[in-house]
TrEMBL record:
Residues 400-534 form the GGDEF domain. The keyword Transmembrane helix applies. One of its GO terms (biological process) is negative regulation of bacterial-type flagellum-dependent cell motility. It catalyses: 2 GTP = 3',3'-c-di-GMP + 2 diphosphate. GO terms for cellular component: plasma membrane. Its EC number is 2.7.7.65. Keywords: Membrane, Transmembrane, Transmembrane helix. It comes from the Bacteria. The chain crosses the membrane at residues 163-183. This is diguanylate cyclase.
Length: 544
C-alpha cells in the first residue's frame, strides 16, 4: 500500500511537467502572434505612408494611427516574451530600430511639412529597404520560434503520452491493489471461518473428550472392583458400547491353549467377524499394532472377516506387559470410516482392558496360589475346610443333604518305590484331573494331603454320592498310565463316604466319619467305597 503515495506523487510531477510544456507551447504561439501583429502593423504603417503620400487622403490615417499605437506595445511585449532567448533578443534589437525608423518616416511624411518631390524616389527606396530588413528579421524570428514551437509541441505530446502511460499504470496498479485487497479480504474471511469452525470443532472435541475421560474413569474404577473375568467383561461391554460410536464392536480373547482367539463379548449389530479364529488370521495380533481396514487406505482385510465389501473396521491388540491377550474389534457399515479420534479412543480403551484383564488374571493367580494345590491344580486343604464349613451351614439353613468323600490311593508307597517319585507325582496329577473333570459346578475337589483327596458334594443325597464315588473309583481303576514309555500298571483308590446330616453336623464330625469309612475300605481290601456307619462294603473290585 506504500506504493500508492509514490505513484500519486509521480503522477502529480508528470502533470506538472505537462502543464509547463503546454505553457511553453502557448508562449511560442504568443511570440508568433505578436511577431505577426508587428509584421502586419509595420506593413500597415508603410501602406498608409505610401497611400497618404500619393493620394493625400485621410482615409489612410486611422490604420496608421492604430499601428502607431500598437507597434511599440507589441515590440515591448515581444521583448519581454523573448527575454529567455538571447538569439531572439539580438534579432529584436535589430528589428526595433528598423520599425522605429519606418514609423518616424511615416510620421514625418504624414504629420510633418511636405518635402521635396525629388527626394521621394530615395525615400521610397529607403522605405523598401527598411521593409525588407523588417521582413528578413521577422522571417528569422518566426522561423526560430516555429522550430521552438515544434520542439515544444513534440515535448508536450511526449509528456501527454507519458501521462497517459502513468494513468494506465496507476489504473492498473489501483485495480491490482483492489483485486489484491479483495482476494486478501476473501482469504481472511475464509481463514476466520476456518478458525471459527476449528474452534467449534475443538470445543466439541473437548466436550467429547471430557465425557470420554469421565466414562473411561468410571469403567476403570468398576473394573478394579470386579471379582472375576466374567464381571469385568460385562463392564467392558457396557462401557465400550457407550464410548465407541461404531455399528458393532467385540472383544476377542485368547483361549487358555493360545492356539485360538474366541469372542468374549460383543455390542451393537452383529459383526462380520468369525466368532473363533486363529491368531494368524488377525493382522493386529500378528503385528502387535492397530490395523485399519477402510476405503481410503485400501489395506488388507483380516482373514477373520467375512464379506467385508462395504465395511470399515479396526482391530486393536490388547497387550499388557508385552503379553498379547486378544483384540478389540470395531466395525462400521456402508463405508462409514472409523475416525482417527475414535481409533485413538479405541486404542486407549484397549489399554484399559489389557490392564484390567491382566490385573484380574494376576489376582486370580494369587488367589489360586493361596487356595490351590500346585501339583494337581485342585483346591488345597485349607480351602476345603473353609468350603466344607460354609456348605454345611448352607445345608443346615436350606435343610439339604451334603456328601463328603475321602479318597486314598492304594499302595502308593509301593508305587513310589517301584516307579519313582516323579511317576508318583504324575499319578497324583492324573487323579486330580479325573476329579476335576468329573466334578459338577459347585462340587469342591481338593487334595487333602499326600495321596489323599476330598470331594464335597453339596446338595447331593447319600445314594447319589455313592454312585458318583463309584464312577470315580472305576475311572481311576481303568487308567492306563505310562511314564517315559514305561507302563505304570493298574492303580486303584479306596473311598470313605460320609453324609450330612446322617454322619455328623460339623466339619470335624463328617471328616472323621469319612476317614473311618476309608479305613474300613482299606482294611477290607482296598479299591472300594465304604459309607460311614455302614459296615457292608458298597462296591468293590478285586482286592489290590
Ligand atoms: N510322589 C509323591 N509321593 C507322596 C506325596 N505325598 C505323599 N507321598 C507318598 O505317599 C506315600 C503314602 O504311603 P502310605 O501312607 O504308607 O500309604 P500307601 O502306601 O498308599 O498304602 P495304603 O494307603 O495303605 O494303601 C508315602 O510313601 C509318601 O512319601 C507326593 O506329593 N508325591
Amino acid at each position: 500500500m506504500a506504493v500508492v503515495p509514490v505513484l500519486l506523487w509521480l503522477f502529480h510531477q508528470s502533470s506538472h511537467e505537462l502543464a509547463q510544456s503546454r505553457a511553453w507551447v502557448s508562449h511560442s504561439n504568443t511570440v508568433l502572434i505578436t511577431l505577426d501583429h508587428i509584421r502586419i502593423d509595420a506593413g500597415a504603417v508603410e501602406g498608409a505612408r505610401r497611400g497618404y503620400f500619393i493620394t493625400k487622403q485621410d482615409s489612410y490615417l486611422p490604420a496608421y494611427l492604430q499601428a502607431k499605437k500598437t507597434l511599440p506595445r507589441n515590440l515591448a511585449d515581444l521583448k519581454s516574451l523573448t527575454a529567455d532567448n538571447p538569439d531572439q533578443q539580438g534579432r529584436l534589437e535589430l528589428l526595433t530600430p528598423v520599425i522605429n525608423e519606418l514609423l518616424s518616416m511615416a510620421d514625418s511624411e504624414i504629420t510633418g511639412p511636405s518635402y521635396d518631390a525629388s527626394q521621394s524616389g530615395l525615400r521610397m527606396a529607403h522605405a523598401r529597404e527598411l521593409l525588407e530588413q523588417m521582413r528578413s528579421l521577422y522571417a528569422q524570428m518566426s522561423s526560430e520560434e516555429e522550430v521552438l514551437l515544434r520542439i515544444r509541441e513534440q515535448d508536450t505530446r511526449n509528456k501527454l503520452h507519458n501521462l497517459n502511460l502513468w494513468l494506465i499504470g496507476i489504473s492498473i496498479g489501483f485495480i491490482t491493489l483492489i483485486v489484491l485487497a479483495f482476494v486478501n479480504g476473501q482469504r481472511e474471511i475464509k481463514q476466520r471461518r476456518l478458525a471459527e469452525a476449528a474452534l467449534l470443532e475443538s470445543e466439541g472435541l473437548n466436550q467429547l473428550t471430557v465425557r470420554n475421560l469421565s466414562l473411561m474413569g468410571e469403567m476403570t474404577s468398576l473394573l478394579q472392583a470386579c471379582s472375576d473375568a466374567d464381571e469385568s467383561l460385562d463392564v467392558i461391554c457396557q462401557y465400550a458400547a457407550r464410548l465407541l460410536n461404531t455399528d458393532s464392536g467385540a472383544l476377542f480373547l485368547f483361549r487358555e491353549s493360545r492356539n485360538q482367539v474366541e469372542l468374549s463379548v460383543s455390542w451393537g449389530e452383529e459383526s462380520k467377524s468369525d466368532v473363533i479364529f486363529q491368531p494368524e488370521d488377525c493382522w493386529a495380533l500378528r503385528r502387535g499394532e492397530l490395523h485399519v481396514l477402510d476405503h481410503v487406505t485400501h489395506s488388507i482385510a483380516c482373514r477373520h472377516l467375512q464379506d467385508w465389501g462395504d465395511i470399515c473396521s479396526v482391530c486393536v491388540p490388547i497387550v499388557a506387559q508385552g503379553n498379547v491377550m486378544g483384540t478389540l474389534y470395531l466395525e462400521n457399515r456402508h463405508n462409514r470410516e472409523i475416525r482417527l479420534d475414535e481409533r485413538n479412543l479405541a486404542h486407549n480403551l484397549a489399554n484399559q482392558i489389557a490392564l484390567a484383564m491382566s490385573s484380574i488374571k494376576l489376582r486370580d493367580t494369587l488367589r489360586n496360589l493361596s487356595v490351590r494345590d500346585p501339583l494337581t491344580g485342585l483346591f488345597n486343604r485349607r480351602y476345603m475346610e473353609e468350603s466344607l464349613q460354609r456348605e454345611i451351614a448352607t445345608a443346615k439353613r436350606k435343610n439339604r443333604p451334603l456328601g463328603l468323600v475321602i479318597l486314598d490311593l492304594d499302595h502308593f508307597k509301593t508305587f513310589n518305590d517301584t516307579f519313582g517319585h516323579d511317576a508318583g507325582d504324575m499319578l497324583l496329577r492324573e487323579v486330580g484331573s479325573v476329579l476335576a473333570k468329573n466334578s459338577r459346578a459347585g462340587d469342591v475337589a481338593c487334595r487333602f494331603g499326600g495321596e489323599e483327596f476330598v470331594i464335597i458334594f453339596p446338595e447331593a443325597a447319600p445314594n447319589i454320592v455313592v454312585q458318583l464315588t463309584n464312577q470315580l473309583r472305576e475311572t481311576i481303576f481303568a487308567m492306563q498310565l505310562q511314564h517315559f514309555g514305561r507302563s505304570l500298571g493298574q492303580v486303584s483308590a479306596s473311598f470313605g463316604v460320609a453324609a450330612f446330616p446322617d454322619h455328623g453336623g460339623t466339619t470335624e464330625e463328617l471328616l472323621r466319619a469319612a476317614d473311618k469309612a476309608l479305613y474300613r475300605a482299606k482294611a477290607a481290601g482296598r479299591n472300594r467305597v465304604e459309607m460311614a456307619g455302614n459296615h457292608a462294603p458298597i462296591a468293590t473290585e478285586k482286592p489290590v
